[in-house]
Write a structure and sequence with these properties.
This protein is an alpha/beta fold and about 550 residues long. Helices cover about 50% and strands about 10% of the residues. The chain contains 23 helices and eleven strands. The strands form two sheets. The chain has a nine-stranded mixed β-sheet. Strands 1-2 form a two-stranded antiparallel sheet. Strand 8, helix 11 and strand 9 form a beta-alpha-beta unit. Helix 17 runs antiparallel to helix 19 and helix 19 packs antiparallel against helix 20. The longest helix is centred in the last third of the chain and has 28 residues.
Length: about 550
């Protein structure tokens, strides 16, 4: 976690959106932990964590909450569109190599963007080729609107200061300039273009002067990872005084990388996660590693589910790294293509392309992307990993009709009522409570507790009863949440232990021993019911697939 000051700033910004109160507590807790790993920065009034999310005080972030966290839209949340396939550079790892066809015109792109937003997209990446070579780029950005975060991926070629100013005025929020090495000659070699390094540095300076959020989009080579030189690269990026380092390993999108030696290992991914956390804690630069965002610990791989890519010719793919198509938007509506694709793509915890490049190799016939027919045949052989932590929380099904859950909720309801009554007695009739216990103390031969002078302690006890009443009510109201029974169990067991210690070490008052027995019983019962509740709600991933891929017939035809 970052500094306490940053945490406070983040909480204040999030609390300004009251709709978050309606979001499931488990999701809010997940988001708070995730967002807390990044430094909140202010760029031109936009409060930004990193460039893969909208600024948290924007209309786009409001749409994320209302349409996805609350509305549970089945459409995508993130999309990328290639605005051209033309690019003077020749990167070996380029995911758009060998694609061809008739380019989408500006009206088609604008219509596509409208469809994407209607389906739920609140983050849109413009890529290529080199998108700056599209003469209508400013018009396309302006047409997108201020309720969708826009990120531009560029090598910097064809950029002028005036163009950057116009892009900012049109609504461009993020720009990511491609830079793969800190040594000029090495970057130019990787990019297959002499002068690429200086073009990128010039573009960075222009965008910084204009006041746009600037990141470097870096494709980290396997060699750089193996030789532990990513750290050296990040130090170089800090010297450039940019906002963010957006990192991705080389993806096996092309045939030159369809081999085990080219694909990142899990240990290497975890090493990059730790490096990201280290730099983010230091706060000199935001490091945003794709393998962190799409890892099992966070949002997972949502290719074809919440992420979609449309190339410059209208072919629809699960993401930019997957050279496969489910159809062309000129032949069929985008909505129909997407929902057909989504039926094949549950959200999962591992990168799809890193796991399935071998199948791409099998079905590749020299054409990029592989045809829809071959794509569908390939998907019959694909197996998906379990869902990520976010997806487990987001798609969790309720099962409130079972006997176990009914018993759990009945226990919670009765507990809440009893706790509330006891709290009221302690608060308004403290003497009566002690007199009652003292009568029974005589029966068991135990000393009487003093009736006078305990008002303060019984007031504290009533405050404690208010807390456990609230927890019990939350258990009843949200039976799928595990945090409430956990907290109630801790409170009751702690009270039970404290009571027996007081009984044995202080005075053997009956009220102490009674509290030991009652709170101990409640705590143990809550543990048993919590385990039952976990079994009921901890669904099997294979049986949940229809929930997060299933689309109604109405949505398919709309």
């Amino acid at each position: 976690m970052l500094s306490f000051k940053n945490q406070i700033a983040l909480v204040k910004a999030l609390l300004s959106n009251l709709q978050l109160i309606k979001v499931k507590p488990s999701l809010n807790w997940f988001l708070a932990k995730y967002m807390g790993k990044f430094k909140l920065i202010n760029v031109g009034g936009q409060l930004i964590l990193h460039s893969h999310l909208p600024s948290i005080n924007s209309k786009a972030f409001n749409r994320f909450i209302n349409e996805h966290l609350l509305g549970k839209k089945l459409g995508p949340s993130h999309a990328q569109i290639s605005l051209t396939n033309v690019c003077p550079q020749n990167c070996k790892y380029c995911y758009n190599k060998n694609r061809n066809g008739e380019l989408l015109n500006t009206d088609e792109i604008k219509h596509l963007i409208k469809n994407l937003k209607d389906m739920g997209v609140f983050w849109l990446g413009f890529t290529g080729g080199e998108p700056l070579l599209n003469k209508d780029l400013i018009e396309i950005v302006r047409n997108t609107g201020d309720d969708c975060a826009i990120k531009l991926f560029t090598s910097g070629m064809n950029l002028t200061e005036q163009l950057a100013i116009e892009l900012k005025k049109a609504g461009l929020l993020y720009v990511s300039v491609s830079l793969d090495h800190w040594i000029e000659e090495e970057h130019d070699r990787i990019r297959g273009y002499k002068g690429a390094f200086q073009i990128a540095l010039k573009a960075i300076e222009i965008f910084k002067r204009v006041g746009i959020h600037v990141s470097v989009s870096a494709v980290i080579s396997k060699e750089m990872i193996k030789r532990d030189r990513v750290d050296e690269f990040l130090k170089f990026l800090i010297e450039l005084d940019i906002h963010e380092a957006w990192l991705s390993e080389v993806k096996p999108s092309g045939e030159d990388f369809w081999n085990e030696d080219s694909v990142i290992t899990e240990n290497e991914r975890i090493g990059l996660l730790r490096l990201q956390d280290k730099y983010n804690k230091e706060g000199q630069i935001t490091v945003n590693y794709l393998g962190h965002f799409e890892g099992r610990e966070h949002f997972g791989c949502n290719a074809g589910n919440k992420m979609v890519y449309i190339d410059a010719f209208g072919e629809v793919s699960p993401c930019v790294f997957t050279p496969m198509t489910f159809g062309n938007i000129r032949d069929k509506s985008f909505q129909a293509i997407f929902y057909e694709m989504k039926e094949h793509f549950p959200s999962e915890s591992n990168c799809f392309i890193n796991k399935n490049y071998g199948l791409l190799k099998k079905y590749y016939k020299g054409q990029t992307p592989i045809s829809k027919e071959d794509t569908l045949e390939m998907m019959k052989e694909v197996s998906f990993s379990p869902m990520s932590e976010f997806s487990r929380l987001y798609y969790k099904q309720k099962n409130e009709g079972s006997i176990a859950v009914k018993l759990y909720r009945a226990f919670a309801f009765v507990s809440a009522v009893v706790f509330a009554i006891v709290g009221i007695i302690f608060l308004f009739f403290p003497d009566a409570a002690l007199v009652f216990f003292n009568k029974w103390s005589d029966h068991f031969g135990l000393p009487r507790a003093p009736v006078q002078g305990n008002g303060f302690y019984l007031t504290l006890a009533s405050a404690y009863m208010y807390i456990v009443t609230l927890l019990a009510y939350k258990m009843y109201r949200y039976p799928e949440q595990r945090i409430y029974p956990f907290l109630l169990t801790q409170a009751k067991l702690a009270s039970s232990i404290m009571s027996i210690v007081l009984f044995l070490k202080h005075q053997p008052y009956l009220i102490y021993f009674a509290n030991f027995l009652v709170d101990g019983f409640i705590g143990i019962t809550a543990i048993v019911l919590m385990k039952t509740q976990k079994q009921e709600y901890d669904y099997a991933d294979e049986n949940n697939e229809s929930l997060h891929t299933g689309i109604s017939q109405k949505e398919k035809t709309e």
